[in-house]
Amino acid sequence: MYEIQWDKDTGGILLADTKEDGTKSEIRPVFFEELDLLGFDRYWNYPRVDAPLLWAVGGRKYYYRDELVAEAEGGGLFTQHRLKIYRPELTLVPVDTEAMTAKNNALLQGLVQKSLRFIYQTFTKHRKRVDIAAVAFSGGKDSFVTLDLIQRALEPDQFVVIFGDTGMEIHDTYQAVEAAKVRWPHLSFYTARSAKDALTTWREIGPPSRIHRWCCSVHKSVPTLLLLRQLAGKASVKALIFDGVRHEESASRSTYSEITYGGKHKMQINASPIISWNAGEVFLYLFSRRLLLNRAYRYGVMRVGCAVCPMASQWWDIISWKVYNQDMVGFIDELRTYAANMGISSKEMDSYLEKGSWKGRAGGRYLPGGGNRVIEQTEGGKIIFTLRQPTEDWQEWAKTLGRLVRTGAGQGYVERGGVVYPYVMQHFENSNIIEVDGLAHADRFVLSAFRAVALKSAYCSHCQACQVECPIGALDTLGRVRIGEECVTCGLCLDLHGKACLTAKSLAISDGGLNMSGNEKKTLHTYEHFGMRKEWLEEFLLSPNDWVSHNSWGNCQFDAMMMWLKHAELITGNKKSIVITPLGEKLAQWGVDDLVTWAVVWTNLARNWAPVQWYISAVPWGAVMTKTEWVAKIGETHPQSESTRKNAIGIKDGMANIFTIINHNFNI
Question: Are 495 and 453 in contact (CB under 8 A)?
Answer without folding.
Answer: no
